[in-house]
Amino acid sequence: PIQGVVGYVFPDDDKRHLWMRTSTYVFCCYDLRTGSFIDFTGRHDYARTYRRYLKGHQGVLWMFDDESGVRRVKCSDDGTVDCIDYTKENGSLPINHVRDAFEDDKGRLWAMTLDGLVIIDTNGKSRIIKRGINFRRGIQIGKLRLALTSDNEIITYDENGRELRRIPIAANSSNISSVTASFVWQGKWIIMTKGNTLMVSPKDGKATI
After folding, report:
1. Hey, how many other C-beta atoms are within 10 angstroms of the C-beta on 189?
2. Which of 127, 137, 162, 168 is the most exposed place for a label (fewest CB within 10 A)?
3. Strand order in 36-38's β-sheet?
4. Tens digits of per-residue pLDDT, 118-177?
5. Residue 71 in contact with residue 83, Cβ under 8 Å?
6. How large is the average pLDDT for residues 167-191?
7. Beta bridge partners of 193
8. Nearest-CA neighbor of 148 among 107, 196, 92, 190?
9. How many CA atoms lie within 13 A of 33 on its CB side?
10. Quick one: which of 15, 19, 7, 109 has its CA closest to 56?
11. Cα torsion angle, 144, 70, 150, 163, sign
12. What pLDDT shows up at residue 193?
C-alpha cells in the first residue's frame, strides 16, 4: 500500500512502468501491463526513502539522499527491473550523505558526498575518485566536470575523474551560505546562495561574485 500522499507521477522510459513518489519520499513502481505495483528492488526494500531523484538519459532512474546513499533503477519493457544500491556499508560510497548529483553526457552519475566524490558508470559500477572532501554541488560544462567544496574551492575534473585545477573563490565571497540553485550560463557556472550569486569561469580559472 502507498503510504503518504502521492506528490509526483511520471512514466518510465520503457513505457511499461509508472513511477510515483509520495510525500514521505517513498518511491512506488506500477506495472501498466499487469495492473499491479511491483517490488522493484527484488528484496522488499522499496520503502527506503530518497529525497531527491533525477531521470537519466539511458532510462535510468537515480535516487539519492543524505541518509540512504544512491539507488540506481533501470526498468525494461519485458518487465525486468535492475536495482542497485550504493552505500558506505557495501563499500561503494565513502559516506551515505549525498549532497548533490548530476549525470554527465556519457550517462555516468557524479555523486557529491559529505566525504568524497564518486562516479557510477553506465554498467552500474562505482568508483570513489576522491575522499576526505565535503562536496556541495556539481555540474558539467563542456568536457569539464566541476565541483564546489565546503572549503570554498571549485575543483575541475576531466571526464575520467582526473583532477585538473582548483579554483579559489574570491576572498569577499568566501563565506558562502546555503546554495539555493545553480546552472550554466554562457559557459559559466552560476551558483546562487541566500546572500550572493557566484560566477565561476572554468576557462579563466576565476570564481567571483
Report:
1. 24
2. 162
3. 6-11, 17-22, 27-31, 36-38
4. 999 999 999 999 999 999 999 999 999 999 999 889 999 999 999 999 999 875 555 676
5. yes
6. 83
7. 179
8. 190
9. 9
10. 109
11. negative
12. 86
Alpha-carbon distance of 71 to 27, in angstroms, equals: 11
C-alpha cell read off for 151:
572549503
Task: Name residue 53's beta-bridge partners.
Answer: 63
What's the pLDDT tens digit per position in 10-45? Answer: 999 999 999 999 999 999 999 999 999 999 999 999
Type of residue at 202: P
Written in H, E and C, the secondary structure of the chain is: CCCCCEEEEEECCCCCEEEEEECCCEEEEEECCCCEEECCCCCCCCCCECCEEEECCCCEEEEEECCCEEEEEEECCCCCEEEEEECCCCCCCCCCCEEEEEECCCCCEEEEECCEEEEECCCCCEEEEEECCCEEEEEEECCEEEEEECCCEEEEECCCCCEEEEEEECHHHCCCCCEEEEEEECCEEEEEECCCEEEEECCCCEEEC
The whole-angstrom separation of Cα 49 and Cα 71 is 10
User: Does this model's pTM top 0.90?
Assistant: yes
